[in-house]
Amino acid sequence: MADIRPKLRSLDVRPVAVSGRPALLLRDPLQLSEGNVVVPHEVAPLLALSDGTRDSAALSAALLVRFGLRADTGLIDKLMTALDEAFLLDNARFREARAQALTAYRAASFRVPALAGASYPAEPTALRQLFQGYLDDVRATSAPAPAAVAGRGLISPHIDYARGGPVYAAVWDQAAEMVQAADLVILLGTDHFGGPGALTLTRQHYATPLGILPTAQDAVAALANAIGEEAAFGEELHHRSEHAIELAAVWLHFVRDGRPCETLPILCGSFDHFIQGQAAPEADATIERLMKVLRGIMAGRQAVVIAAGDLAHVGPAFGGHPLDALGKARLRAADQSLIRDVCAGDPEAFLDGIRQVGDRYNVCGVPPIYLALRLLEPTHGRLVSYAQCPADELATSVVSVCGIVWEA
Questions:
Q1: What sign has the CA pseudo-torsion 352, 356, 358, 361?
Q2: Please, how many CA atoms are within 13 Å of residue 320, restricted to the half-sphere of its CB?
């Protein structure tokens, strides 16, 4: 072992079954290694104890005293070696791999689409056919769109197209005119593993199967100068594999028929500390500096703000109880309350609504939606589409998503 007091990194942890037995699948959100690690459920407490303060003997003793579990040091060393080889421990080996990956990311001509060819077609014709199919279905089943008005922004989901396609199509269809007229698009996306309040920039252009969307370099420089290089780029490697901005950017490029426009991609880290009342976003110096500079950048331009965020994540797939019809109805009512605040253009009411229920519905689009509302004040929105998408085979877990257009 390279580190005798192993410390686990922040990881993507998902429940799985191996030979019918419950286990945890540990995946690296930075994708530094192709390897994943599966940990039997009965030794899962070992992960919580791996905080950098205990060696193998101390981990073995803590498991026995706290959880009544016996695991000899040889077994623990074997597991920690597997975690180390997959770069899942916070140690020198991981930091070197991360630095190398960041250097390679920055040296590339553009940010390569992470999901092309897996979550959606990488070939332009096939992609256009997929999206046009979603649009044709929505137009055939929906009421005619209201008369066009001056638009300023929208909420786009970041769930996969296979489940969220109709919602994507509905909102992007109604936002088409504003998107086609834009000369700057600010893309705010959930950073699922971002640090508290992190607002992460990149100088890399975002590629889609339809070409390159150029990142507005002057805007990036102005924002980095305002919030500091470390705050702006400390988690830049998250851009490489985070899907939220990418899935909105592909629709942006499609609706513009492949015509590029300047974009400003910003990944938005956790708002948990704001939701728990430990701090207030309006008192956060980094957020306030970012808001001030962004408003200046938007002034005098045909700027559109896109919040790429989903709503609730509930049910067994997310560590909760199975949802029945009544549970889904209650979720819909809770979502409708948040949507009313969003459409009213009220960022504080939106955030307070999540605080009041302790974020029991795991709304993962809080940061980009809140920040978009702040940027667009005053504004009002119109709900275009809403759906509860299944998140397990029994449909007892769901992700709720919406499409909203913000108008002038």
A1: negative
A2: 19
Query: Would you write out the chain's pLDDT as a tens digit for each of its 408 residues?
Result: 445 899 999 888 888 878 888 888 999 999 998 888 998 888 889 998 999 999 999 999 999 999 888 888 998 999 999 999 999 999 999 999 999 999 999 999 999 999 999 999 999 999 999 999 999 999 998 777 665 556 799 999 999 999 999 999 999 999 999 999 999 999 999 999 999 999 999 999 999 999 999 999 999 999 999 999 999 999 999 999 999 999 999 999 999 999 999 999 999 999 999 999 999 999 999 999 999 999 999 998 999 999 999 999 999 989 899 999 999 999 999 999 999 999 999 999 999 999 999 999 999 999 999 999 999 999 999 999 999 999 999 999 999 999 999 997
The 3 state secondary structure assigned to 54-65 is CCHHHHHHHHHH
Say which CATH topology domain 119-407 has: Protocatechuate 4,5-dioxygenase; Chain B (3.40.830)
Give bridge partners of residue 51 from the DSSP assignment. 7
Q: Among candidates 195, 206, 270, which has minimal Cα distance to 230?
A: 195
Token match 């290089």: residue? 229
Q: Tokens 């019809």 — which residue?
A: 325
- Any idea how long the chain is? 408
3-state secondary structure string across the chain: CCCCCCEECCCEEEEEEECCEEEEEEECCCCCCCCCEEEEHHHCHHHHHCECCCCHHHHHHHHHHHHCCCCCHHHHHHHHHHHHHCCCECCHHHHHHHHHHHHHHHHCCCECCCCECCCECCCHHHHHHHHHHHHHHHHHHCCCCCCCCCEEEEEECCCCHHHHHHHHHHHHHHCHHHHHHCCEEEEEEECCCCCCCCEECCCCCEEECCEEECECHHHHHHHHHHHCHHHHHCCCCHHHHCCHHHHHHHHHHHHCCCCCCEEEEEEECCCHHHHCCCCCHHHCHHHHHHHHHHHHHHCCCCEEEEEECCCCEECHHHCCCCCCHHHHHHHHHHHHHHHHHHHCCCHHHHHHHHHHCCCCCCCCCHHHHHHHHHHHCCCEEEEEEEEEEECCCCCCCEEEEEEEEEEC
The domain spans of the chain are 12-103, 119-407
- Distance, in Å, from the CA atom of 240 to the CA atom of 397, rounded to the nearest integer, reads 28
